[in-house]
Specification:
It is a single chain. The protein is an alpha+beta fold. Helix content is about 25%, strand content about 35%. It has 4 helices and 11 strands; from the N terminus they run αββββββαββββαβα. Strands 1, 2, 3, 4, 7 and 10 form a 6-stranded mixed sheet that branches. The chain has a 3-stranded antiparallel sheet with strand order 5-6-11. It starts with a helix and ends with a helix.
């Protein structure tokens, strides 16, 4: 198994843990390389009208997720603390088109691992340690296809991910920000 496959599996596992903690369902995309890795939605608990009790149902709000995983040496920390990440033009255009369609939002989740593979993950008797973190990115309204001429000549394009967009255990709040 190559390093990219290992990173992909680690990023999926990490994100799955965060989603489970927040009671979100996630479905792996089965359509191949369409720019969507996971489909997620929160679970709503509702009180039954008849017979009492509660039931859990899928929220009508959903988000599609594109997962990426890289190492520290592949991102640049900018003077303002934000991250510069290079994304394939195809993935960039997916984010841009999906933002303009106003349907189910598409968010990019980028996991940044240490450069040294031995530092990625450790297991102790009382904890699991996964080093570094993930960040979420949604195409800002200020981005446009004006850059399309530039895109034709490139295979990758840089995006700036805000340092405040760090994945936390409070994914419900992040979900709400992405959904709006």
């Amino acid at each position: 198994m190559d390093d990219n496959k290992v990173k992909e599996i680690i990023s999926e596992a990490f994100f799955s843990l965060v989603l489970a903690k927040n009671r979100f369902k996630s479905y792996k995309s089965s359509s191949g390389d369409d720019g969507v890795d996971l489909l997620i939605n929160p679970i709503i608990t509702r009180v039954r009208t008849y017979g009492g009790g509660t039931s859990r149902i899928d929220s009508p709000k959903k988000i599609d997720i594109q997962l990426k995983c890289t190492t520290e040496n592949k991102v640049t920390v900018l003077p303002n603390g934000n991250l510069r990440y290079y994304l394939k033009v195809k993935n960039y255009e997916d984010l841009l088109v999906r933002r303009d369609e106003k349907g189910v939002p598409l968010a990019l989740i980028v996991f940044v691992l240490p450069d040294k593979e031995d530092d990625w993950l450790e297991i102790f008797h009382d904890q699991l340690l996964l080093r570094r973190c993930g960040y979420w990115y949604v195409m800002p309204d200020t981005e446009s296809l004006v850059r399309s001429e530039v895109l034709k000549s490139k295979s990758n394009i840089s995006i700036e991910i805000l340092s405040k967009n760090k994945l936390t255990l409070d994914f419900k709040t992040i979900f709400d920000k992405i959904w709006k």
